[in-house]
Amino acid sequence: MVTTSVKAVIDSNRSLLIRNIIPCEELYDNLVKLNARATGAEQTEKLLELIVVRGPTALNGFCDALQLSGHNFLAELLRDEVSGGTSDTVQWEDLTRSVPGLDKAVNKQQREEVTKVVNAKIRDSVQKELLRRTALDKEKVIESKQRQLEDSWRFTELLREKDSLIETLEGGLEQAVTDARSHGVNVQELKTFVDQTKLKHKKDLEKQMKYNTANEKSLQRLTERQYETEATLDYVTEQLTSYLREGEEHNDLVREETISPGLTMTSVDRAKDTLKKTLQRIQELESTKRAHDALVEERHYMSAQLGVDITANVRTALQQYVVKQDGTVTSLREEVTKLNSEVLALEEAASEHATSKTETVHMLESTVNDLKNRVDSKNAIVAELRADLSSKEARLAALLAENKLLQKKLAGVDHANANALRASIEGPSMHNGVGPLSSRESPEAIGRLSPARVQATTLPKPTPRITPHNSLALQISALPPVSPKQKRKELRQQRKQQQQQLQQQRLRPDVFPSGQEQGPLSEPKTGNGIDSTYVGLQRLKGFNAETKRNFSNAGWNHWPGAAPRSDYLRK
């Protein structure tokens, strides 16, 4: 819904808004960004058209967005225009007063267009004059505010980087603790595995040693039995040879003797004895055969166990087996020694790893604690700066209220002076016959009047209403004239003071304890932005030294949320 007042305010200030609004992220966070337009001026123009269509609510939101994004001057101008109306602007009657016929030659729409153009020109000229007179102080205010905004942005980025670093370190610390725990579990598992391996190898070694001992004993028994068997075989061979030799000799004796009736007892006994010995030898041979069969059976078993042919030499196979078992025992002992060295190396590596992980965890904890302490100190500084900013805002609000009261008083005084001046002009002129013209007099009567009467009928121009935007220009224009020589002298003094203030600012060591530059929203200690204008303002009625001191203490040269360098301060 289009509102007439909103449309009038936007149309009258359209060129000013298009020139001075700076499209930025803070502004677009509160409004809708128009990507269809190529330049910032086109986007701003399209935005103003949408605000006109949507009415007062959209205008209030637009003013809030300007205030939040730093365009305080434009926001206050629009709010003042909406609240105060257009009573302080030039009307069509003022333009056509000297040319009465012009009112009939143009229509209503043309009147409105001409009025808008004239009001815009007047506003631009007043603003240019105001900014031209206070250009140096404004430039200093802008530079101070720009530096504060840059410091605030840098400090915000630094805090964001520190927060991300703290999060990264905390994540790394958690990961390191998790890794340390997992490595501790792995170390415990390795220790358990090492103990189990030790026990297993010890048992295997004991078992193998038992087997080796049993094999050595069995081999020794077999060797002894072999020796005994060979000795028995040699003895049996010798006995058989001797028996055969004795049998042959006996047979020879029997053939030589003849059997006769005179056989003696001695020969019978000798025959019995020989038979008895022969039977004993036969029994010994049978026992020897049984022992030989058992030995052959045992030889077959040993050959089968050793994996050799039955006809091979058992002694050589046993010797090779013993050598092989000795090599196996030696390799097992070397493997046990190697495993023991590996176990010791694993234990040392586990202890070193646990020590390094503990040192890393301690170092990360100390780093995180240090960063937390630094962040706490920075937060404390930010809290102090915010408290200082709140106090400055409160003082600024009080001073603005006082300024409004002073403006109302000045407006009342100006109105009273205008009425008194009008009364002083109208009263004596009526008595002298040269008073103001009456509205009932005809044009012919006006033509017959004397020049003095016509000049007396011209009333003084009404005093325009003083607003926060034109009060300074009107007050400066009301000052008494100053000679050019005096102006040059005052200008040289002001420049000298500004150079001294700038030099003091450069030499001022405002740094934090950590060595960084001064943080955001810091208040400069020199260079008030309105000192140069107080030279003339002190002469005005109702503006004393105490009011100047209140304005200076409020810090008008760095109000909160002020915009950075913008185009509306250019000439």
From TrEMBL:
Residues 427-533, 549-571 are annotated as: Disordered. Keywords: Coiled coil. Residues 329-409 form a coiled coil. The keyword rRNA processing does not apply. Residues 496-506 have a biased composition (Low complexity). InterPro entries: DEATH-like_dom_sf (IPR011029). It comes from the Eukaryota. This is CARD domain-containing protein. It comes from Ridgeia piscesae (Tubeworm). The lineage of its organism: Eukaryota, Metazoa, Spiralia, Lophotrochozoa, Annelida.
